[in-house]
Amino acid sequence: MNKTLGCIGCGNMGSAILRGLAKRDDLNLMGYNPSPAKTEALAADIDRFVIARSAREVAQRSDYIILGVKPYLIGDVLAEIAGDLTPDKVVISVAAGVSVAALQKGADARCAVVRCMPNTPAMVGEGIFAMCYEDAQLPESQQDAISDLFGTIGTVMVLPETKFGAFTATAGCGPAYVFHFMEAVIEAAVTVGFTRKDAADMVIQLFKGSVKLAEESGQHISVLRESVCSPGGVTIAAVNHLDRTAVRGNIIDAILTARERDREMSK
Ligand SMILES: NC(=O)c1ccc[n+]([C@@H]2O[C@H](COP(=O)([O-])OP(=O)(O)OC[C@H]3O[C@@H](n4cnc5c(N)ncnc54)[C@H](OP(=O)(O)O)[C@@H]3O)[C@@H](O)[C@H]2O)c1
């Protein structure tokens, strides 16, 4: 490929994407961040990483320009770099709630824009990335190249923009739901006598092993759950309690609440 990917705003998500993409030896990487410590840390860890002096330098020298700033800064950053955008470049925004139309407007339609919604496991190369390729300026060959890039650091789902709110409420917010459940199991383990360290180690392996089983067994999640619940046994007693207290219904309602909140915030 031999392209340059530059990131404007190298905070949690920008740095995670750059660090993950560092394993691609066909890609030159650069980044700009106002406080230099973050780009200096990236340069220390990634051989081919160039520290840019400004957002404009990133825009001028990159084929793919990732916007890793907070959503409220996207308009300002695009206004700053719009003059440097040319039709061969692609702007990829990871900002929550910023639409393709807003990105096109900010970029003055000078190049194609892509809306991407990541989640935090991207930081360890296991993210899920929703990609919206609805900008008519984006050729199919570029769509494939961008999916291939993000496929290096997780799973790519190409979605219509209308599905982004639903994706955010499930996979975008999802790590918080999983960690919430993990915390609860850790508290229970401590309550029944394990040290915090043992409880945390045990719960991390519990989740890891269960995910691996779900991935590799080829069986539906419901069948896997049933297989732990022997008739008249210990597990079914606990699962009955979860059902009586509507844990499943509450999780569904939590995600629907997140979906609603995303709708309100996108207005
Ligand atoms: N973290 C997540 O779970 C997550 C999930 C999905 C989507 N996102 C999206 O990812 C984006 C970044 O989130 P984050 O969690 O990575 O935030 P973050 O850690 O605060 O990173 C934002 C970075 O932008 C830099 N910045 C501020 N003003 C700038 C400017 N004018 N030009 C260039 N860089 C500038 C900040 O630098 P300073 O530190 O020097 O101010 C900071 O390093 C957001 O739009 C968010 O919606 C995040």
Give structural notes.
The protein is α/β, with parallel strands linked by helices. Helix content is 52%, strand content 15%. The chain folds into two domains: 3-159, Rossmann fold, CATH 3.40.50; 172-266, ProC C-terminal domain-like fold, CATH 1.10.3730.10. An eight-stranded mixed sheet has the order 3-2-1-4-5-6-7-8, with helices on both faces. β5, α5 and β6 form a beta-alpha-beta unit. The two termini are 38 Å apart. The mean pLDDT is 96. The structure holds NADP nicotinamide-adenine-dinucleotide phosphate (NAP).
Features:
267 residues; alpha/beta; Rossmann fold; 2 domains; 8-stranded mixed β-sheet; 52% helix; binds NADP nicotinamide-adenine-dinucleotide phosphate
List the helices and strands and how they pair.
Layout: E1 3-8, H1 12-21, E2 27-32, H2 37-45, E3 49-51, H3 55-61, E4 64-67, H4 74-81, E5 90-93, H5 100-106, E6 112-117, E7 127-132, H6 140-151, E8 154-158, H7 164-172, H8 174-191, H9 196-216, H10 221-228, H11 234-244, H12 247-266
Parallel strand pairs: 1-2, 1-4, 2-3, 4-5, 5-6, 7-8
Antiparallel strand pairs: 6-7
Helix pairs in contact: 7-12, 8-9
Bound molecules: NADP nicotinamide-adenine-dinucleotide phosphate.
